[in-house]
Structure formats: structure tokens, C-alpha cells
Amino acid sequence: MKNKSLSLTIFIMNRKLLITIFALSISSIVSAQEFYVSNKGVGEQCSSTQPCASIQTAINLAKTGDSVSIQAGTYQENLNIPANKEGLILKGSGKLNTIITSSGGIEGVEAPAGVPADIIIDVFAKKVTIKDLTVLHGEGDVSKHDIGIFVRPPADNAILMQLNVERLRQSNAQTPPPPAIGILVMRAMRAVIKNNEFLGGYDDNIHIPTSKALIYKNKIMNANLHGIIIVQEPTPENGTPPLSTNNVILDNLIMNSGKEGIEVQGDDNLISNNKLFNNAESGITTCGENSSTCNFPRGQAAVASNTSVFGNSFSNNKKIGVDEGENTFIRGNIILR
Prior knowledge:
The chain is mainly beta and 337 residues long. It has a single domain, classed as Pectate Lyase C-like, CATH 2.160.20. It is built from 2 helices and 28 strands. Helix 2 (55-61) links the parallel strand 1 (34-37) and strand 2 (67-70). The mean pLDDT is 87.
């Protein structure tokens, strides 16, 4: 127990350092040039005096470290941030004022392979910041796999903050359907997801087959399935570190999920100081080989090992928690009546 406590203390210290580094990185970003977008804009100059009407036009003009400032309004676009836009800052005029809604998806985009996808913001560049806007899949028929924001390699160190993420559609057309996802971070390391509101409609609000992500101070509501799911990724064969490890889920409100508030499949993850209310199944589930409730995308069971679960508050979930993992450390959680 002494060694376990020491390991936990070191783990927490490292996570606090990680949070500090991310906070400094946000405050120290200096953009080389700023481009402007207005839904009343004209042309393709994207300047402060002559903003353009298309966000994608401004992204295409931007270079490393530049920013795109989007005025209040509703923009019907599907955006692609390619790998050569490292350090791009995409910022709205407040999450209640700037709304990006799908135009139906970009032709030929699939996720996973063979499944047409409707991705509102598709991020491939490193160190991208997206903040102060709403991402919305509006009402209508569903013919594609809906993803609000997709962060994928080589897009390490993404920062997603002060966003509203919402889907008004009710189901996917595929049988069986891939889950509709609010924010999907797939194998892109060290993402920060903080101070966002997930208003519902997606199957999984946050879906992370990745490592070293920080999910902090979000309000995560009304998922059809999971508020947050850490999906087990197989250990790479090329000597790189294993995935789905060392993620931190800290100080979030997670409520009204159709299944679990948090489902954990990976190893060495920290779940701390979250509030888990009114979730239809368990507040937190750590998965094991014989789990009957866990969602394994590849059909192969995954064992969550060395998960630290402490300081969380639970109220009115069907089950407080389900621990089917290995070597789970549980302490100081509170059951509210």
C-alpha cells in the first residue's frame, strides 16, 4: 500500500505539472497574423476591414502560428485544418454567438474507412487551438457518421476550450451504426479539452482512443451512451508507447448519460474530483475481460489496469461504479443522497 500511495502521489504531481504546462502554453501563444471572417463578408482578403465570408478560406490563407477570428453569426461549413497549419488558433466571438453547423460533410471523407463521415472540424495540424464557439449538427436526416470535432495524427497538443458541442439529430443510418461523437481524439497525444459544454444528442460526448489527454472542468450532459469513454487501443508493434494510457479526467460534471458517465478501457488513467449524476448505468466503469456492459469497438475485450479513481461524487446513478479492471485504486469517493 505504501508503494501504491507513493506511485499515486508521483502520478498526481506529474498531472499537476502537465496542467501548468498547458496553461502556460495557452497564455504564451503569439499569432503571426490574424484573419477575419464575417457572415456578411465578401471576397477572399479576410482582413479586419474586409473580412471574408468563409472560415475555410481564412484557414487556407493562414500559415504556422496564425489565427482566424470569426465574428458572431451562424456558418454552415465543414472545416479541414491540414497538417501544415501548425499552431493555428480558430476563435469565435463567444460560444453563444459564433455557431458552426454542418453543411452535410465533405465529399469523400470517411471515418472509419468505408463509412462516409460528417465531420464539422477535422484537425490534422499540431498545436491547434479551437475556442469560443459552438459546434452543431443540426436537425435533419442522418446519412453519415456524425463527428463534431475530430483530432487525428499528426495533430498532437490540440487545445479545445470554451465550446458548446451539440447534436440535434437522433440516430445514425448505418447498421450497426458507428457512434455519433462530439469530440473524437484518435491517437493524437496530449490533447486538452477544458471548460466546454456538451449539450447532448451525440452517442459519446467525448471519445478518446489516445494518451496523455487532459479533460478538465467540462459540463458533459445528455449523451445517448457515454459521457466520456477511454477506448483501448492495441499496443503498437513498432516500439512506440502504448495508447489509451495516462489520461486525466478531472473536475467535470457528467450527467444524464444513457449508459455510463465514464467508461475506462485503457491503463494508468486518473479519474478524480468529477461529479457523476443521473447516469442510466454506472457513474464510472473500469472494464475487464468478462465485462458485459463495456463497449469494445473491435469486438475484443480490454482490461483497464492501474486506474486511479478518487475524490469523485456520485448521485442517482443506477450503479455507483463497476470495477472489473485490474489493480484499480479507489479512495475518497462520495455518495450523495
